[in-house]
Design brief:
CATH architecture: 3-Layer(aba) Sandwich
Helix content: 25-40%
Strand order of the largest sheet: 1-2-4-3-5-6-7-8
Distance between the termini: 34 Å
Number of domains: 1
Oligomer: single chain
Structural class: alpha/beta
Strand content: 15-25%
CATH class: Alpha Beta
Number of strands: 8
CATH superfamily: Alpha/Beta hydrolase fold, catalytic domain
Mean pLDDT: 97
Radius of gyration: 17 Å
Low-confidence stretches: none
Length: about 290
């Protein structure tokens, strides 16, 4: 299956590439190094390439594993109706079950936070270190209001034109960034390549719709279970937050309340901290996973 990845991308990502069967779907995973497994999970609308700047600067003293969520990157593409938080939790749990070690570290961002933690929880893994970036690992509260971004994803027809026809937000990543010079031409080419075909690009719209817009949304029960699970976590945590995130800027305080032991690093990044301020992320990983 490596033939799926063009040579120009392999040259940029000189790591071990493998595909793992996760309940009948093939999940692409990059690996660098050996040792304690540290899993880095991306979110919407990107893929494992988001961690390129991070992997490039880390030593081989740990086993860094970077899976592509199903429907993204070089994992199997699926139909829009196949996406749900329950399904992604199940697929991620299958991935975690392929790791023989009981203890794992997690580096999470965006939907990679909820999906990554929920998957580890279901697989019975013990989280031993967390680096958290601009994500949501808590359930919504009564009376909450969805963001404009997520409200747009729920609009019939218009959302399909916007997310699938106009390739939003993938073709407009700079809107969500703040640090000048981020998302250079070669990076944009890499990010867009796996979802370049219309038949393959249901993922970004699907994950936007997976965000609850009311308390009866099917994602809410899993989010409650995941928040409860994390509330008892007392291990090392570092929060690296892009303070200029136009979508998730409000969630930093809620995240820090869930982890009172966490050290917090505020950066000038927008949403994509790994791409915009990678040095802070690298420092956090090295500190948490000494």
């Amino acid at each position: 299956m490596r033939k799926q990845i063009p040579d120009w991308l392999i040259k940029q990502l000189p790591y071990k590439h493998s595909w793992i069967d996760v309940g009948g779907k093939n999940m692409h995973v990059m690996q660098k190094g050996e040792g304690k497994p540290i899993v880095m999970v991306h979110g919407n609308p990107l893929w494992g390439y988001l961690y390129k700047k991070i992997l490039d600067e880390l030593d081989d003293d740990h086993k860094y594993l970077v899976p592509d969520l199903i429907g993204f990157g070089f994992s199997d593409k699926i139909k829009i109706e196949e996406h749900s938080l329950q399904a992604h939790q199940n697929w991620m749990a299958e991935f975690f079950s392929s790791i023989k070690e009981e203890k794992i570290g997690l580096v999470i961002h965006d939907w990679g936070g909820m999906i990554g933690v929920a998957g580890a929880m279901k697989a019975g893994k013990k989280i031993d270190g967390l680096v958290i970036m601009n994500t949501c690992v808590t359930a919504p509260r009564e009376g909450f209001k969805p963001t404009l971004f997520h409200s747009l994803s729920q609009l019939p027809f218009l959302s399909d034109i916007l997310f699938r026809g106009l390739n939003f937000p993938l073709s407009y990543l700079r809107i969500f960034s703040h640090v000048k010079g981020s998302f250079k031409k070669d990076a944009m080419r890499a990010y867009k390549y796996p979802l370049r075909k219309f038949k393959d690009n249901s993922g970004p719209l699907s994950l936007a719709r997976m965000v609850p817009n009311n308390m009866h949304h099917p994602s809410v029960p899993i989010e409650r279970d995941t928040e409860k699970y994390l509330s008892s976590y007392d291990g090392p945590v570092k929060i690296v937050w892009g303070m200029n995130d136009p979508v998730m800027w409000k969630l930093r305080r809620r995240t820090s309340r869930l982890f009172p032991q966490a050290k917090i690093v505020k950066t000038q990044a927008g949403h994509f901290v790994q791409e915009e301020t990678p040095d802070e992320v690298i420092a956090a990983i090295k500190e948490v996973f000494k």
